[in-house]
């Protein structure tokens, strides 16, 4: 039983971590090589790796998507440590509109122009920081969605993930608050009901044996705070 | 369409959060009033006087400015979304 509980919790934490890793913004240091536009089929389950813009019919099965081809600096551990090596990285460039994930991106065409403007050669590289979310997966043809691009003087720039820092602080505060609300609700609303039920039970069972049922002992485990 | 969906469901979600926080804040305040009573009247078992004290404290709380601050639950996310829309799309 205990093992099952731990397993279920681990699975839930893993799912949450995957969702956060997919949808929170990350930064890559890249050199833009080229941009292109390609027709994409949207009729299988990998549909979820493409955006769902507002101005698109719900039943559409293929459409053009813009892409940004880059050479990206490799990193260790979620981008916290930079490496000298580079790899190819292709971003899709799609509006997210007012739907999930909530980046409220409407400037796809502008972003494509900025990316085009930053195109450079290996001999004379122009480095840039791309903000993106999502995953690159070659087997599923999934691409991270570029949100913003800004030029930087050198590829050794230090990036502070301000949004993620504030997001996780907010998340911890929200969880602590939710916990406090639950404790308060239990102490003020559930426990008194159980107590009065307990009093009635005591009256009813005054003449009976003092053996307590399993259910009752379980209910007692819910009471933690001492009563005044 | 997406905008309307966001406004409707966002408003509903914020409404749930607003109600939860309002109930929680009142509960905490009531508990504090009960503690105050116990502190000021040690050994006093007059439950009627205690109830009058707590009820008057709750009326004072409900008419004060503090519970209205919970309305910021609607204001802050709206400002945050407007800021994100601007920052994401401004050049």
Question: How would you briefly describe this protein structure?
Answer:
Chain A has 228 residues and is α+β, with helices and mostly antiparallel strands. Helices cover 36% and strands 25% of the residues of chain A.
Helix-strand layout with pairing:
The complex is a heterodimer of chains A (228) and B (91).
Chain A: H1 2-23, E1 26-41, E2 62-76, E3 81-93, H2 108-117, E4 128-133, E5 145-151, H3 162-204, H4 214-220
Antiparallel strand pairs in A: 1-2, 1-4, 2-3, 4-5
Chain B: H1 2-40, H2 47-63, H3 72-89
Helix pairs in contact in B: 1-2
| Main interface by residue count | A-B, 20 and 19 residues
In helices, the fraction of residues of chain B equals over 70%
Mean pLDDT of chain A: 87
What would you call the shape of chain A?
A: elongated
The number of helical runs of chain B is 3
Describe this structure in words.
- The complex is a heterodimer of chains A (228) and B (91).
- Chain A contains four helices and five strands; from the N terminus they run H-E-E-E-H-E-E-H-H.
- Chain A is of the alpha+beta class.
- A five-stranded antiparallel sheet of chain A has the order 3-2-1-4-5.
- In chain A, a hairpin with a 4-residue loop joins strand 2 (62-76) and strand 3 (81-93).
- The longest helix of chain A has 43 residues, at 162-204.
- The radius of gyration of chain A is 27 Å and the shape is elongated.
- With 91 residues, chain B is mainly alpha-helical.
- Chain B contains three helices and no strands.
- In chain B, helix 1 runs antiparallel to helix 2 (47-63).
- The longest helix of chain B has 39 residues, at 2-40.
- Chain B is elongated, with a radius of gyration of 20 Å.
- At the A-B interface, helix 3 of A face helix 1 and helix 3 of B.
């Amino acid at each position: 039983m205990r093992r099952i509980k731990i397993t279920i919790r681990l699975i839930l934490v893993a799912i949450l971590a995957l969702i956060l890793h997919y949808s929170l913004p990350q930064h890559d240091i890249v050199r833009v090589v080229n941009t292109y536009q390609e027709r994409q089929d949207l009729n299988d389950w990998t549909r979820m790796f493409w955006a769902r813009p507002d101005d698109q019919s719900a039943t559409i099965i293929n459409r053009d998507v813009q892409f940004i081809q880059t050479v990206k600096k490799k990193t260790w551990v979620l981008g916290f440590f930079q490496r000298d090596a580079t790899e190819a990285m292709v971003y899709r460039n799609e509006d997210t509109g007012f739907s999930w994930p909530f980046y409220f991106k409407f400037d796809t065409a502008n972003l494509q122009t900025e990316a085009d403007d930053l195109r450079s050669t290996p001999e004379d590289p122009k480095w840039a920081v791309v903000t993106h979310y999502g995953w690159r997966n070659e087997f599923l043809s999934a691409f991270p969605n570029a949100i913003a691009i800004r030029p930087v003087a050198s590829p050794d720039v230090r990036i502070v993930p301000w949004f993620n820092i504030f997001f996780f602080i907010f998340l911890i505060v929200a969880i602590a608050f939710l916990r406090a609300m639950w404790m308060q609700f239990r102490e003020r609303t559930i426990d008194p009901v159980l107590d009065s039920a307990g009093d009635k039970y005591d009256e009813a069972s005054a003449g009976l044996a003092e053996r307590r049922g399993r259910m009752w002992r379980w209910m007692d485990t819910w009471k933690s705070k001492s009563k005044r | 369409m997406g905008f309307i969906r966001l406004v409707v469901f966002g408003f509903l979600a914020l409404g749930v959060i607003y109600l939860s926080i309002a109930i929680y804040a009142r509960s905490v305040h009531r508990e504090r009033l009960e503690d105050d009573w116990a502190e000021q009247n040690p050994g006093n078992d007059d439950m009627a006087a205690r109830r009058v004290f707590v009820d008057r404290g709750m009326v004072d709380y409900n008419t004060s400015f503090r519970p209205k601050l919970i309305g910021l639950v609607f204001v802050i996310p709206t400002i945050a979304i407007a800021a994100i829309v601007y920052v994401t799309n401004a050049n």
